[in-house]
Amino acid sequence: MKLSNAQIEQYEQDGLLIVGDLFTEPEIALLRDEAERMGTPQRQTPGANVYEKKSGKIRQAYGSEQDSEAWDIAYRLPRILEPVQQLLGEQVYLWHSRIIFKLAHVGEQWQWHQDFTSWHMDGAARGGVHDMISIMIMLDDTTPENGPVRFVPGSHLEEGAQEGGVLDWTYDFETTAYPVHTTLDEHIERMSRKRAVVECTGQAGTVVFFTAKTVHSSTDNISPRDRRIMYLVYNTIENKPAKMETRRPDVVTPYYLNENRNVLNLSDDEAFARLVEGRGLAA
Question: Domain tally for the chain?
Answer without folding.
Answer: 1
